[in-house]
Amino acid sequence: MLRKFASIASLALCLAAASPALSADYKALDAEAARLMAVGKIPGLAYAVIEQGKVVHVSAQGWRNVERKAPLTPDTVMYAASITKAAFGQYVLMLVDDGKLDLDTPIKAYLPKPLPDYDAYKDLAGDPRWATITPRMLMTHTAGFPNFRWLNADGKLDIKTDPGTRYIYSGEGLNLMQFVIEQGLGLKVGDEMDRRIFQPLGMTRSAMSWRPDFRPDLADGYHADGKFEEHDERSSVKAAGSLDTTISDLSKLAAAMVSGRGLSPKAAAERTRASFPIVNAHQFPPSLTGGDPDNARIGLAAGVGVVVFDGPQGHAFFKGGHNDITDNTLVCVERGRRCIVILTNSGVGQRIFPPLVEAALGKTGMPWAWEYNPVRPVAAP
Question: d(Cα 182, Cα 187) in Å, to the nearest integer?
């Protein structure tokens, strides 16, 4: 969701000062996470560490509901938010392996009728550029769409820039990819992701839409000011961000992703191939102008469902997930097949991400300033 992100710069510097790499000592890592959570005023924090493609540590601290003093556990269901996009990317690449989808074939080849003939996309009538859009463009945020149509003054969907020419973060693009799969291939994305990803990986408390059995151990959310908001029961599948999951479950998916499990080597390589260079100085707000030359220095680019870069430990990928009551991140380094996955039930979880990621993985070169556009300062502790 498009939103203003709190600046992490001053707080991160203070927190990181005493945060050496602790990945070999998980008791110390848990203690560091607890310290960071307290200083950052994060109500609930769950994280997992993957080494050599295997989950080696899972931790949950704090509260899933502060008012009821209900503890957060490794099996507490939390919003994945936009980390859903990375999970959906895994499914899209499975369809590529199946020969049912080609990343560079225009989506018009898969749809029974022209896109504007569908009621949900009638706003694109008169704009022939939709016919040039490919699955790769949708999965790399280069189709030219806004993040969501309701952000436009008229509430209508439009194409901001020629498809394939600019990275513009877009939930609309991922949701259109879901539409193409469901309308063109006749597959129900939520059911298929459960059958092909969640069940085989043992992700028993994960789903793309609400399940009543989530209720007994469910994390509610907290705004930047500490205001409570109940976890929403999302009834519809949205590739852009409807996944409910747990840290225990999501760590299994991260381990599979960084190891390439479930995919052919060719399809797995597509995830982290630099499909499109990112010149934008910040991910939010989506921008049509300007750029940051440092992006090219680290090879910042869009992959399939993730963003890739080259850091001091080599090629890496990441995906964040954010809304007003959720802040999550997934950071993976290909060398050593190493990841950390972090879920919080706070709108300002990003306050503690840089030092916690460094404590678990060491220096990764993660482009935090690009991921979180600093718009207002956060007082140092």
Answer: 5
